[in-house]
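Posting this for the archive.
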Amino acid sequence: MTKITTFRTGRLMAALSVAALACTALTAPVAAQSYIPDDLTVMPPVPTNFDPPKTAWGDPDLRGMWPIDNIASLPMNRPAQFGDRFWLNDDEYAARQAQYGGSDARYAAEDESGTIGMGHWVESDSSGRRTNLLVSPANGQLPAMTPEAEARYRSGRSSWTPNTQFNWTSDFDTWDRCVTRGFPASMLPFRYNNGIQVLQSPGYVVINLEMIHDARVIPIVGSRDEIAARRWPASVRTWMGQSIGYWEGNTLVIETTNIIAGDSVPENSYERGPSPLNMATMGVPPWNTIPTSEQAVVTERLTMTGPDSVVYELTYNDPEVFVAPWTARLDWSRNDDYSFFEYACHEGNVQIRNYITASRAGVELSGAEGGVE
């Protein structure tokens, strides 16, 4: 599967007959997190004392590039060695600082040697003092799935599931097929293509995503009380759902419903749904087969905590799938030198065909029932 990543400033990449001059700088480390407490097991409220600049029409100005490649190596679930801590201690932080920029170093080394490999492909680092992305539940672990959701999760099929026989495109998930990562998976960090761009106009906020180039056009209403009147009928659903926002002081609150429901079990690809979490986000369950129900609701909160920093919070509530809601908190850092390039996924997506032909050949060679003639 071809996924074109973002290139950094002043470097020339040649791949086959295609050459592109890069104009993107690696995101700087996460802005100073002034709300880190003395007790590392406490997650303080998001600071709201910063007075952000305003747009010409009076809304807080969130416009800019906010790539999250610099936190893309932070896991969703908290690793066991951190216990109940939201934050690194001084020694752990010093070790992380020494490792930060590893992605950039690998890129530079490949340029120096005239090779192209994982350094040009995977652009992710861990910066700041957070131990993981999940802040609720307080134990840092995703809630359990309901028994029915767990069964559907384990019965699903994608290119990531073990021992799967691939016979047609319906055996692959929406990301495999270059359709979408789904929602809210699209807002969480991955190993590459982590660019997020925010645009604003009177009455609208647009969130452009680098991977697959999904664009979320979000109407802004006067208050939460006005959302119900703007909701689509329950039968109208899209991969990214219907997002409607409103301002709560200087915080942009976005509520999303009407997400396409389903799972990865049906043979009919039109009946299959996206996973709300993608395994390319560090520390999430494997396989990309978590189901989504019609009850799924996503609440996002974007708060500027400084001229170049935003705290992004995402709360996911789907009672048919998870036994409790969960919340992730991400620190965004401004990098207006970051640029998007063409995301040529479907155009070069030979892997779907390769998976199918290899799987069919394996069945034929094994002499298993249903082998290809």
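The longest strand covers residues 297-306. The chain has six helices and twelve strands.
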